[in-house]
Amino acid sequence: MSLTIAVETPLQDEVRTLVAELNAVLLELTPPEHCHHLTVEQMADEDTTVFIAREGGVAVACGALKRHGDGIGEVKRMYTRPSHRGRRIGEQIVARVEAMARAEGLKRLVLETGDRHYAAWKVYERSGFTRCGPVLDYADVKWSVFYDKPLFDGSASSAAGA
């Protein structure tokens, strides 16, 4: 079966189930007060674009781009079902998020993930993200690990983005 990744609304039962699975996994690894979940309703806001990976028409993974001010985009709600892990689907979703961010002229992608989310670290590092200090309004706590990725270098992009 072929895998497809497309922009979809999170306001559908199958995506709600996928996000509920993600939330359950996060709560196993991180105390609730340090989980930064977006609800599916928040994911449906106009500042957020949700990507859904499907195989055989079944939703198997998700990820989102949330736009912030100052040309910053945030990678959010990344999840791949256990049955589909190891196939680099997360990296494909991150690539789609990055492509959209670049097309919109965003300057930087950032993200917050958990201190025990080792598989997520691999996805982000393979995708060119590097660890950094706290981003956006996230607290600097032991439960959080932060990554960023500049999308444009100062010279070539300013002319192209003008």
What does the model show?
The chain is of the alpha+beta class and 162 residues long. It has 5 helices and 7 strands. Strands 1-2-3-4-5-7-6 form a 7-stranded mixed beta sheet, with helices on both faces. The longest helix has 17 residues. The C terminus is likely disordered.
* Apparent shape: globular
Q: Show unreliable segments.
A: 155-162
**Average of the residue pLDDT scores:** 92
Helices, by number, come to 5
| Strand count | 7
Query: If you compute it from the alpha carbons, what radius of gyration comes out, rounded to the nearest whole angstrom?
Result: 15 Å
Helix-strand pattern: EHHEEEHEHEEH
**In which order are the strands of the major sheet placed?**
1-2-3-4-5-7-6
Question: What distance separates the N and C termini?
Answer: 42 Å
Task: Characterize the largest beta sheet: strand count, sense, and whether it forms a barrel.
Answer: 7 strands, mixed
Helix fraction, binned, reads 25-40%
Structural class: alpha+beta
Percent of residues in β-strands: 25-35%
Keywords:
162 residues; alpha+beta; seven-stranded mixed sheet; disordered C terminus
Task: Describe the secondary structure blueprint for this structure.
Layout: E1 3-7, H1 13-29, H2 40-43, E2 48-55, E3 58-67, E4 72-80, H3 89-103, E5 108-114, H4 118-126, E6 130-132, E7 144-150, H5 156-161
Parallel strand pairs: 4-5
Antiparallel strand pairs: 1-2, 2-3, 3-4, 5-7, 6-7
